[in-house]
């Protein structure tokens, strides 16, 4: 199983990518959620300038956030810095990038159309979009790499429609928490922290480093109406912590510190017991067992997302556990 990393893009992500490269991580996905994090393409290019081997790309970009020509130009810019062999492009329908701005995810047909248009632009073709014909016009390598520009695509999907689009595009698949064995390259995004010997899974350090993973599962459950199934006893109580916020503004509170830390409304429900049960706070041997199960279930790569105040520690501990 390949070991990669995913970053809730920060102003320090370029440095974290350098550390990850030195630790042997093969790829680094940078989240594209502009309501939450700095510009993903700027940070990817900064990371490319500070690394030599690690493969870089957005994980994952949301089509509605940028015109396809803007995305094609951004991809070309990253290729000009890192090289095509170190560039990948993740795309999705907008679980975080859109929900955090009060919008539902895009229809998968729109995602597919967007990828096809961007890919055609990168090949140097003329494309019709929004009633106009366009083409990448950069005349020479002072402005953009020569077309065609070929980059691999990774589609974030967790359902039949998304999987179908992934197959249609001939792309890799990226899933969250649940493996998919139907693809030759199947990346799974996971969260958590490696416990020290005898460490309390409910300690402040563990909550800071792994609590974000439990929060995002709780958020997903309430947004999809399955919180009662996930937490039959405390689920309604947790959901009620947001009842005082008008529905049209609730997404703002739900995404407070999303995938970065635990917000004040979630904190009473983020316990060491739940993080252990959810596979987020594990010893090195327990992480190895978890990775073996994910690989047996069809995952070919794990994209581990560290969090908390000490990202280098999380990257180092996970790499040591995974490669022991």
Automatic annotation (TrEMBL):
**Keyword Magnesium listed:** no
Ranges for domain Luciferase-like come to 15-185
Protein name, per record: LLM class flavin-dependent oxidoreductase
Per the UniProt record, the source organism is Pseudonocardia yuanmonensis
The source's superkingdom equals Bacteria
Keyword Flavoprotein attributed:
no
Pfam hit, one: Bac_luciferase
Show the InterPro entries listed in the entry. F420-G6PD/mer, Luciferase-like_dom, Luciferase-like_sf
Q: Which UniProt keywords apply?
A: Oxidoreductase
